[in-house]
Design a protein that fits this description.
The chain contains eight helices and ten strands. It is α/β, with parallel strands linked by helices and about 230 residues long. A hairpin with a 2-residue loop joins strand 1 and strand 2. Helix 7 runs antiparallel to helix 8. It starts with a strand and ends with a helix. Bound molecules: adenosine-5'-triphosphate. The site of adenosine-5'-triphosphate has 10 residues, from helix 1. Keywords: ATP-binding, Nucleotide-binding, Transport.
């Protein structure tokens, strides 16, 4: 369970995030939407202790993320390409993570086999450095890495951005499978309302740093979001 309490982030005079309370139960697929600058990335960065809140706390399974390290073992994330090691090839990068997570070669192959369709023969065994990959392929490496080591919680910032249509569909399938098989708690930010409403159990709408809607009814989600974004 992830709990956000009295969270505020301020840059000089500007309050960019102001969330009195938010709780995300285990195994929920939590979608986060909002226009540019709404605060989605800032919220994820605070939840991952990449940025410190001005006020308030985020706890993952009762551990304050800014005070403990233990939650990191159970958490995977891909927010942007800065999280990758650009001087490695994807194979070298996955092998490095394999050692960090104490996985065997068989565990790694088993993990990567889930990504065969998504990788589309562009990622593994290609001897291309991560720095030279296309934006879509970079994203695929980051997502595969975020799901290594059996995380219980996975943060994905804009996972569908830069993916071709087939890859978007394959990624949706993969997330739904992971959700079903491993009961991972997913936190996914997206500008793609169709994809995010399809895979998420709940959508939180941010506007200027505030939660202005918390949608849990799958049948009504799309219409409500449509009305907000077109209105
Ligand atoms: N280091 C910083 N210094 C000053 N302002 C910042 C900083 N980081 C973020 N902000 C501001 O915080 C607000 C929220 O930004 P954030 O990147 O979280 O929005 P977002 O919802 O992820 O946007 P997008 O959809 O464009 O990715 C923006 O107004 C942004 O300019």
């Amino acid at each position: 369970m992830i709990l956000v309490k009295n969270l505020k982030k301020q840059y000089k005079e500007a309050v960019v995030l102001d969330i009195p309370s938010l709780d995300i139960p285990k195994s929920e697929c939590f979608g986060l939407v909002g226009n540019n600058g709404a605060g989605k990335t800032t919220l994820f960065r605070i939840m991952l202790d990449l940025v410190r809140a001005t006020e308030g706390t985020v706890t993952i399974d009762s551990e304050d993320v800014s005070k403990s390290e233990d939650w990191k073992k159970r958490t995977g994330a891909f927010l942007d390409e800065h999280m990758l090691l650009a001087y490695l090839t994807p194979d070298e990068y996955f092998k490095t993570l394999m050692k960090i997570y104490g996985m065997s070669e068989a565990d790694l192959q088993n993990h990567l086999s889930k990504f065969t369709d998504l990788f589309n023969d562009e990622i593994v065994g290609k001897k291309k450095y991560i720095r030279d990959l296309s934006k879509g392929n970079l994203k695929k490496v980051g997502i595969a890495a975020a799901l290594m080591g059996n995380p219980e919680v996975v943060f994905l910032d804009e996972p569908f951005e830069n993916l071709d249509p087939s890859s978007q569909i394959r990624l949706k399938k993969l997330i739904l499978q992971e959700k079903e098989n491993s009961k991972v708690t997913f936190l996914i930010s997206s500008h793609d309302l169709n994809h995010v409403t399809e895979i998420c159990d709940r959508i939180v709408l941010l506007e200027k740093g505030k939660v202005i809607n918390d949608l849990r009814d799958k049948t009504a989600m799309m219409a409500e979001l449509d009305a907000y974004f077109t209105g």
